[in-house]
Amino acid sequence: MDAKEAVLDDNVITGTFLVNDIFARVLFDSGADKSFVDHKFCKLLNMPVKTLNVNYEVELADGTIETVSTVLDGCVISIKNHSFPLSLLPFKLAGFDIVLGMDWLSHNQAQIVCNRKQVVIKTPSGDSLPFGEIPSMDCLSK
């Protein structure tokens, strides 16, 4: 799925956010175990990658297995003036700079509100922070 398809798909949540002060196209993916950064965007961040102690295997949609052996730590995503740390596995992504998977979603106590295409996460102070698309409520006012 590329970014254009994702915007039209009611089942996914995307957005553009600052990651280390660089705009990134982000996909929130509860179907991904880990979080990933595209190789090209990784180079833009200009940060050192570290070798993983244990390689991570990624199963692609077509069933093939790719191995990831590095991690990019120390990145920060800014969402509505709040900063959240990121640990990202460099990987070839189509249409997105970053995919935030269950590792990040769980750590930030995320709730995906499907009917509103929203994600609600907890700030470090414990407040709920909703973001994403909220459909028009015109149908409810008739």
TrEMBL record:
Q: Name any one Pfam family assigned in the record.
A: RVP_2
Q: The organism sits in which domain of life? A: Eukaryota
Q: InterPro entries, alphabetically?
A: Peptidase_aspartic_dom_sf, RTL1-rel
Q: Where is the signal peptide?
A: none
Q: PANTHER family given for it?
A: LDOC1 RELATED (PTHR15503), RNA-DIRECTED DNA POLYMERASE HOMOLOG (PTHR15503:SF45)
**Record's protein name:** Aspartic peptidase domain superfamily
